[in-house]
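HUMAN: Quick job: go over this next protein and say how the chain folds.
***
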Amino acid sequence: MEVDENFAVREVSAGVERFSDSSHCLCFARDVRQCFPELIGLEDILQELLRGDRDSFELKGIARSTHPDQPLYIDLYIIGDRDDPEEDAKLMLFVEDVTERMVLEQTLVHRTNEAALLYNALASAKNYIDNIISSMADALLVVNSEGAIKTVNRATQELLGYTHAELVGQPINAIVQDAAFCKPASNYFPLPRMKF
């Protein structure tokens, strides 16, 4: 689209009306701000482009559709054209349909937000469980499938006289010497010997 110094539309490419705010305003000599109201308030920037004080200007992610089922987003690129000294300066406006990119970005942001909410919920649940475990009066040892201790509570540390760091990672059979306890457990995973 070509626009003169008074912001009047001088030339229009086929199909541009699809991207304007209202298709009837793309008639010859109409003010471009009627077609693209996003340009209202940017007159100083447009004048800089016309004078050659600025190379280009972009407006990205402009929503054009009022129907959520049929989104339409555009990017607007504006450059000043002063190539011909015999002619008045003009603006060239280029419109790009970026609907697919914007929909993908919105989907990504939505999924990122969902993941953050899930992470926060998991962190909150973990803190809740950790508080329960640490405040239990009974000894508690949690082991992994190899029989290594993964978690102990304060009561376990006080009962056994070892620190958390000394217990975590050690095999359970180093703590529990009862063969009746360890034998059934060994059916599920091997129980290596603990070395202090």
